[in-house]
Amino acid sequence: MKGNITQIHDCYGCGVCAASCSKKIIKIRLNKNGFYQPYIDEPDKCSDCGICLDVCAFNHKERALKPEEINIRSWAAWSNDEKVRRKCSSGGIGFEIGKQLIEQGYQAVGCRYDIREQRAEHYIATTVEEFIASIGSKYIQSYTETAFNQIKRRGQKYLVTGTPCQIDSFRRMIRKFRCKENFILMDFYCHCVPSMLAWKAYIKMLEPKIGKVTYASWRNKFEYGWHDSWLMGMDGEKTSKPVDWHDSYNLLIREKKTFIQSLRSKGDLFYKFFLGDMCLGPQCQNSCKYKYDKSSADIRIGDLWGDTYKDDQKGVSALVAFTEKGYDVVENLTNVSLIEHPLEIVAEGQMKTNARAIDTYPLVMYALRRGMPIDGVIFKLLDILQMVCTKLRLMIK
Ligand SMILES: Cc1cc2nc3c(=O)[nH]c(=O)nc-3n(C[C@H](O)[C@H](O)[C@H](O)COP(=O)(O)OP(=O)(O)OC[C@H]3O[C@@H](n4cnc5c(N)ncnc54)[C@H](O)[C@@H]3O)c2cc1C
Ligand code: SF4
Ligand code: SF4
Known about the structure:
This protein is α/β, with parallel strands linked by helices. Among the domains are: 5-59, Alpha-Beta Plaits, CATH 3.30.70; 67-193 and 280-346, Aspartate Aminotransferase, domain 2 (3-Layer(aba) Sandwich). The chain is built from 15 helices and 14 strands. It has helices at 16-20, 51-55, 82-87, 93-103, 128-131, 145-150, 164-176, 196-210, 249-255, 269-275, 282-286, 324-331, 343-346, 361-369, 376-396, and strands at 26-30, 36-40, 73-79, 107-114, 119-125, 142-143, 158-161, 183-188, 213-217, 231-236, 263-266, 299-303, 317-321, 336-340. A 9-stranded mixed sheet has the order 6-5-4-7-8-12-13-3-14, sandwiched between helices. A 3-stranded antiparallel sheet has the order 9-10-11. A two-stranded antiparallel sheet has the order 1-2. Helix 7 (164-176) links the parallel strand 7 (158-161) and strand 8 (183-188). The longest helix is centred in the C-terminal third of the chain and has 21 residues, at 376-396. The protein is globular, with a radius of gyration of 21 Å. The chain starts with 15 loop residues before the first helix and ends with a helix. The model has no long low-confidence stretch (mean pLDDT 93). It binds flavin-adenine dinucleotide and iron/sulfur cluster (2 copies). The site of one iron/sulfur cluster has 12 residues, from helix 7 and helix 11.
């Protein structure tokens, strides 16, 4: 008996097991803590083939890409199109790579925000216009089941972008099904993903003010520049009409100053959740094997924080090629600026070890599970409690 993913707990929620199952009985849903997890609805139909466990990165200690397949080269990179660079989270290199591969006949699997479900989700863009919705980091876990199931293993070429854990499973799947030549895989430096319960609590707090959310943006360089771009921009039914993603490329990229954003908030509560490591996934704390120079992707992107570009306010992407295939993509890019640097410069400031939850984590998760309102007052109390815990720990030492 080979078993199936019911023996796996607190996993990456990448959805690759669902896409690999020939019986189509694996579904991805949120668990009680607000993280995606696979479920088998009709266990009697399972044939015990074990494929779901083979493709699962969580189920393997080693990453899919072996050390001998890796040859790292790294660059500072940005789009030469000022409008693209301004709209994207860092230098817009993720968008340029997708756009140029689509122009060469690829389809691009990326992440957009779905206002109906109020979640980040993967989708397949077949045109550059469709790819525009993927611009910008959505700092929440992405739901992948539908898009990954729609990918054809033969007869079509794809760029697939995702968190490093999603990409590690994806590489296992394309190896298993012997179709790796049809795929280019791109991940990004990944701090962690916060619980979707936090995102839901955040939206619940905003909706009385803005109405049902019609657009969410996590970063914005317009006001304070790239280094200080941690701004939540939210639109709702009370404040503006939803973005029409069917508008033309020129309208979406060039003419609209931004994708609207009526309510902009800096030092926002959501960032306290996310960057404060208040409600990150157990998988990110205990099982992430993708920090710094560790990846199963062909290409990695990120923000090039660090000293070398500290005066740049337009945005500089970190760009790393791990494989020959990744290097080929970079070498063929046009309309971008590339400056090769050692990895220590390109990845300066990136985490080398996993994020760790703060002391008040169980309390935060308890409150989120019970749907308690999370507002400024609660955060102040949690801050005070955290300070007390830190002091106590120092005293005990
Ligand atoms: C959860 C998360 C954590 C991150 N942590 C770090 C970090 O610690 N350090 C760092 O330098 N960079 C981090 N990034 C990446 C960074 O925010 C930028 O995405 C990156 O700099 C590329 O920017 P860009 O301008 O090239 O393109 P962008 O336009 O920002 O491209 C973003 C790409 O990421 C994909 N994407 C967006 N959100 C998600 C998601 N939730 N799940 C899967 N794919 C998604 C989109 O499809 C798009 O292709 C993180 C991103 C996410 C989503
Ligand atoms: S990590 Fe991904 S492949 Fe593994 S069980 Fe979880 S959802 Fe499935
Ligand atoms: S921190 Fe690691 S485990 Fe968590 S989402 Fe990112 S890549 Fe996956």
